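User: For a reading group we're discussing how well predicted structures match intuition. Take Pirin family protein. Before you show the prediction, I'll give you the sequence so everyone sees exactly what went in.
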Amino acid sequence: MEKNIYRASERGTADYGWLKANYSFSFANYYHPEKVNFGALRVLNDDIIEGGMGFGTHPHENMEIITIPLKGSLKHRDSMSNTWISIKTGEVQVMSAGSGIMHSEMNNLPNESINLFQIWIVPNKQNATPRYDQKAFSALERADKLQVLVSSIDEELKDSLKIHQNAQISRIDLSKGKEFTYQLKSKNNGVYLMVIDGEITVDNTFLSKRDAIGVYQTLQFSIHSQTASELLFIEVPMQF
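Assistant: Thanks. Here is the predicted 3D structure of Pirin family protein, as C-alpha cells, for the group to look at:
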C-alpha cells in the first residue's frame, strides 16, 4: 500500500472577505507542484461563503462537479433551466459540465455563512450532454456503515448520484473505537480520505479534523476511530 499524507495546516488558503477558501489542490492563485491532483481528483475546496454572497455566472466544461454543503444552504442556477434551486445541508449536488455550461452558486441565506466542499473529478467521457442532479442523504444511514453518495453513470448502484467516471464518493460516521475496512472498487483506483471531523488512524498514521490521506496500490485498508469521526472518501482512477 502506498500513501500520501495531506495535513489540514498545509492546505492552500485564500481570504476574499466574502469567501474563505482552503485548497487541497492547486487552484486559483494557489499552486503547489506536488498538489495538482490525486488521480482523477482535481479539486477539493473547503469553502466558507458569507451570507448573500457567492460565485456569479461562469462557465465550465468537461468536468464532474460535486458540491456537499456541510453547514447552511446554497442556491444554484445554470444555463439548462435558469431557475434557482436550493441545496441544503444533508443534500449533495452533481453537475456534469460536459460540452459546456454556465452556472451561478450563491449562499441561499442573507445573514448566515455556509460551509461546503466542492469537488472536481476529471470525466472519462468528453463533451457529454450537460446534466444536473441532487439528492438528500440521511446521516442515520451512514452511522458506522458506508453511505455511497456518488458513483459511475455506468454502474447500476441505486440511490446514488451519477458521474462520468469510474469513481465513488462516500461518507461514514464512525463511533469512537470502531474499526472499518474500506474495499476499493478497482486495483487501478486510489482513495482520497478526508477527516471531516474527529480523529482516526490509518496504517499507524494519525489524522485529525480536515487532515487527509491518499491511499493507492491496494484493494483495501483499515481505519480505527480514536474519537467519533465523520469521514469522506473519494475513490478515483489513478491513471486517467
